[in-house]
Amino acid sequence: MRNVELKYNVLAICACLLWSTAFVGIKIGLQYTTPLQFAGLRFFLSGIMLLPLIRPFSQITNAIRHNSWLITKVSAFQTFVLYALFYWGIDLIDGALAAIIIGSQPLFAALTAHVMMKNDKMTIRKTLTISTGIAGIVLIAIPKGLDGPDGWLGIVGIALLILANIASGIGNVFVSQHKTSISPIILSSLQMIIGGLLLFCFSLLFEPFTGFSLPSSYFLALGWLSFLSATAFTIWFYLLQKPTIKVSDLNIFKFIIPIVGAALSWLILPDESPNITSIVGMLIIGSSVIFYNLASRN
Question: Could you tell me the residue range of the domain that residue 283 belongs to?
Fold first, then answer.
């Protein structure tokens, strides 16, 4: 049992490590194209990458026939709604405040699971862990300043990111509620193909089409982001479908993402550098995840 639990923890950490590299890739890609087009292509390609792994191919048609409503719900909440709200919201507020709200995703996942699932209620330990993690994110973000745009646009941006967090939590719950009905690879592939297509088509209504005559750095970023999404979502869906894993417990691992994401930004991006407050915040976040898992094992 301990070995199985260790395996699940390692897989969760691997998925979060992959997601943490997305911040750098997104910053590189958005130098050349628009947000929703970039996101749409990223997830569409991610889904396509997984198709060769599905054997026999008839599994796809069977999955669509028997799980079409689940695929539709996950595509809508986990890709289309989540990332449309994410990119719109992040464009309306400053980066530090956005980091705090996005980093609070484990809280909203736990609250969503508390409301939608009978066997996944909030506990004092979960509440303390999530609160500690969010405190660490605030410490990382505050040195960058919270002087975002005033007025209703800032409020709209905050609301959009909160709704994005809720959409992510709902998508996680949908996957967890159907633990044995569909392969995680098939579900991951189909939901990203459908969600990516919807995002790209939706982008054409609001963003100018940038074409594909772009430098190699754009395609390298797009390729890496597509690969990490394909891998990380498949791992995540696999874990959510395990009977012993709860949505709220699994999402606490997402506190790893801002830590590694910030560290990679400091290493790769020339205008990013660490400070003592950020390092303390990262240590607080890491400690909250470690202590939560130690307490769970005890």
Answer: 20-297
